[in-house]
Amino acid sequence: MNDTIKNAGRELIKAALELGMTVAVHYEDDDDAAIELRGCENLDLLWNEATACDSATVYFVSHSSFDRKYREGWAYLIHVNEPDETVSDHSSTGWVNEWATLTDYGQNDLKVVPDRDTESGFAAVRPVRDGEW
User: Fold this and answer.
1) CA-CA distance, 92 to 46, in Å (whole number)?
2) What's the confidence (pLDDT) of residue 63?
3) What would the pLDDT profile of 97-112 be if each residue is shown by its tens digit?
4) How sure is the predictor about 65, in pLDDT bands with cuts at 50, 70 and 90?
5) Does the structure show a pLDDT above 70 at 16?
6) In 1-133, which residue ranges form alpha helices assigned H by DSSP?
């Protein structure tokens, strides 16, 4: 088990990008996004924007193969909280809620992926590392 406390906000953004989602960061109470990107290579850019002020709201959108967009939830980040408590509030349904519940706010190594066979539509999987489960 990893005893290192991870920043929940950064872990959330990273997990969304790994699933191919678009992440939009809004400063504090701004209606317009300060930045909106997708792709794992953009983690540092998004995180820098999310931490450029005391708090930020982050929105997550997934994409289907037919270029449909699905809102997967939002999270409110407060950066003065402890790292594992950076996600101060979040949507109560959808991928963000399942991510928070199943990964203990990014503190374990589980990944939350879409799964039509579950009631919530999401499942937690453990990534394979060095050929071991």
Assistant:
1) 23
2) 84
3) 999 999 999 999 899 9
4) low
5) yes
6) 8-18, 43-50, 94-103
- Residue type at 43 in one-letter notation: L
Asked if residue 77 lies in contact with residue 88, where contact means CB atoms within 8 angstroms, the answer is yes
Q: Are strands 122-125 and 69-78 parallel, antiparallel or unpaired?
A: unpaired
Cα–Cα nearest to 18, from 51, 44, 41: 41
Full strand arrangement of the beta sheet holding 22-27: 35-38, 22-27, 55-63, 69-78, 87-90
Tokens standing for residue 63: 């994409």
Which residue in 86, 37, 18, 81 sits closest to 57, CA to CA?
A: 86
- Hey, what are 117's tokens? 């066979």
Of the CA atoms within 13 Å of residue 101, those in its CB half-sphere come to 13
Taking a C-beta distance cutoff of 8 angstroms, is the pair 86, 9 a contact? yes
Residue with tokens 């999310």: 50
- Judged against a pLDDT cut of 60, whether residue 38 lies above it is answered with yes
What residue ranges do the domains of the chain occupy? 8-125
* Whole-angstrom distance, CA of residue 64 vs CA of residue 5: 33
Type of residue at 50: A
Q: Residue 1 pLDDT > 50, yes or no?
A: no
